[in-house]
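Students often ask why inverse folding is considered easier than folding. One informal answer: many sequences map to the same fold, so there is more than one right answer. In these notes we will look at a single instance of the problem. The structure comes first.
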């Protein structure tokens, strides 16, 4: 309504702009430069010309050069009917049309840059042995897929990761530069089609429009005692100065399937836990006080964490922070078996495990809500973890988590060699 157009027209503008208001309607858009005539000035020119004032008098009253007024009357006059009548609305339309300077997007004019961006938006997930893992086959329908449908797997760097990584990969080549906003516009905004529109399904959200989405988590559990609350966690874990402090959680899917996630706070290195359903799941009734047949009960989660975390050196096994879920009821046994001190967040406080929450959001690109997570084998999880650990992170200076962890391990080896 404020733009003076109907709702269908406004909706069309909104979709054509990729979910953002057009720049000329934005409240934050820059004002017109003072060197250009405004619509108010054109109204004054039309009024004074109708009164018979000359070009120099109009220029004197506006505080403009006479050549500016002369050029305006010659270029933007109304020509319908063969007369050069000057009308403010027609002159404004002519000026706006002439002001549009169609410019090809940088991605359209630079094949090398376009190839770099597309490869990192849509690259295939690769297993540790080098074999491509294509994941589910998902047709492109031109819109965001529903939350209960599979999505294709890709390395899927975000546009900001791509834009910042270009500076590291091509430090001396100024032609290999682009902003993340330009990449988003190439994907979302119609008419800037340097990138294929279907690449939006490789983005973390998979949306065709920019839409915020709230999240909520958690409830407290009685087995959590005051001495294992996050307030008792060492200060070194809070400031991320020392490696070996982890955050963990489960991501849940259809038919009570689940995958465990472990994220190291300092390096953001991610490890995934396969939690397959136990024998009898879905075919027989669970015994009272027996193990959770879905595969993510306390015993199964404890065994998976121990099996995974003990592959790391001892200096990388200091603490684990989890929310107050029943799957961590055996945290005391976990502390003994893995040599890992366990701490719990306060109820309804997922932000206290912010690193893990962010990682789980990234993982939803590969494992959407409402899909069966038990269909993915250990090889699939290893491939997804490798793809995630090879994505550059802003908080790491655009290094990858794998590079950051490798630097930590090499530093530890150097200290040991020096001490001996």
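Output (designed amino acids):
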């Amino acid at each position: 309504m404020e733009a003076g157009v109907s709702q269908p027209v406004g909706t069309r503008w909104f979709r054509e702009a990729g979910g953002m208001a057009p720049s000329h309607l934005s409240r934050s858009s820059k004002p017109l430069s003072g060197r250009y005539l405004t619509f108010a000035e054109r109204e004054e020119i039309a009024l004074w010309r109708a009164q018979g004032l000359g070009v120099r008098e109009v220029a004197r009253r506006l505080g403009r050069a006479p050549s500016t007024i002369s050029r305006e009357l010659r270029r933007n006059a109304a020509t319908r009917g063969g007369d050069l009548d000057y009308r403010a609305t027609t002159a404004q339309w002519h000026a706006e049309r002439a002001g549009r300077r169609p410019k090809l997007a940088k991605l359209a004019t630079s094949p090398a840059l376009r190839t770099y961006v597309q490869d990192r938006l849509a690259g295939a997930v690769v297993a540790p042995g080098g074999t491509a893992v294509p994941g589910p086959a998902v047709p492109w329908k031109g819109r965001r897929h529903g939350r209960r449908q599979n999505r294709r797997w890709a390395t899927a760097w975000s546009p900001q990761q791509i834009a910042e990584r270009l500076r590291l990969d091509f430090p001396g080549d100024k032609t290999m530069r682009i902003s993340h906003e330009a990449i988003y516009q190439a994907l979302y905004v119609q008419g800037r089609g340097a990138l294929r529109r279907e690449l939006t399904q490789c983005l973390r959200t998979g949306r065709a429009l920019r839409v915020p989405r709230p999240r909520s988590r958690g409830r407290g559990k009685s087995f959590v005692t005051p001495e294992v609350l996050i307030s008792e966690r060492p200060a070194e874990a809070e400031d991320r100065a020392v490696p070996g402090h982890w955050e963990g959680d489960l991501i849940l899917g259809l038919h009570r399937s689940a995958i465990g996630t472990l994220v190291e706070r300092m390096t953001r290195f991610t490890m995934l836990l396969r939690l397959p359903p136990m024998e009898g799941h879905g075919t027989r009734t669970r015994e009272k006080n027996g193990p959770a047949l879905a595969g993510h009960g306390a015993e199964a989660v404890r065994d998976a964490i121990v099996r995974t975390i003990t592959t790391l050196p001892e200096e990388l096994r200091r603490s684990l922070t989890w929310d107050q879920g029943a799957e961590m009821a055996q945290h005391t046994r976990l502390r003994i078996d893995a040599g890992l001190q366990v701490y719990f967040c306060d109820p309804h406080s997922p932000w206290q495990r912010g690193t893990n929450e962010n990682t789980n959001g990234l993982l939803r690109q590969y494992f959407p809500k409402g899909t069966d997570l038990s269909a993915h084998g250990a090889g699939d999880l290893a491939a997804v973890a490798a793809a995630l650990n090879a994505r550059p992170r802003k908080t790491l200076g655009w290094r990858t988590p794998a590079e950051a962890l490798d630097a930590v391990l090499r530093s530890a080896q150097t200290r040991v060699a020096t001490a001996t």
